[in-house]
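# step 3/5: fold
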Amino acid sequence: MSGDSAWNALDALPEGVLVIDDGGRIIHANDRARLLLELSDDSIGQSCEQAVELWSGDEVVTKRLVCPAPVGDRLAETIVTTPLRDGRDRALAVAGRRLADGTTVLTFRSAGSRLRLEAARSDLVATVSHEIRSPLTSVKGFTRTMLLKWDRFRDDQKQAMLETINEDADRVTRLLSELLDVSRIDAGRVQLHRTAVAVDEVIAKVVDGARHRGDLGDRIITTEGVTTTAPVHADPDKLAQVISNLLENAIKYAGDSDIRIGAVQDGDVVVVTVADDGPGIASDQHRRIFEKFGRARGQRGSGTGLGLYITRGLVRAHGGSVDVDSDVDAGARFHVRLPVMR
């Protein structure tokens, strides 16, 4: 293969490739490398240290990466950043090898998705640790207190402590269930046991349970416009989970507002709406609240930030969709659309 053919072949690669001579000058940069590193047209023949700026933390590491020694040794993949013309930094994974003739070949690929994945994993560990530690601390404290001082407490005090232990155990169980749901959604392995489901009956059952929640306070949940619709082909437990998640979200974030839930048929689709007149959600945050661990800017409240992510995953598994109609100080209306059973 001729030299020009070899360079053309490098241009077809999905990874950026820099070829550097033993003097540290760039011999070739394929199209992907030019894009990732924002190299100018006159970079060929320039010193790599002048044309490329690579950082690891607070240290410029271009020279160290360009000349990995001794000859034949591989440069293990390293995450670096390079400054872009618009002022942003681009994360790159760089690897390479110095050949027998002194030439160094470096490969580059974007590492942004990897860093986001690592950040998501870190968020997961931090969130799970916090959400589990709090109830377990409570369970441990009350259990130890009762074991050591059982005879010092009245029956009503023991009852209150046992109820707290039971509630905290349920909290840990819910967290574990959420994590299992997330893993199934991410893997595309949501198992549905479909049957003909009457949406109005599921709503009535979920609302009846939600009305007994301790954090509902004096607020009222009303079923406005719940009509008898055509049945949907759905998993009744998963559908109940979707509606429960939306009601729980409203209870947490709707402030002092009452909550309304409705269901109507619109052609071949049944639309379930959960609405409130609370503080609302800014339009630029609508997408974020459906992401994993997503919270709207300035949103306060306990929880893992997984409820709406799971809701969206379960609805999509049914072939439906979920969205929100809201703005600041304008309340929020969540709409779930499910196809009717054919």
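# step 4/5: annotate
The CA atoms of residues 97 and 170 lie 55 Å apart.
# step 5/5: archive (pending)
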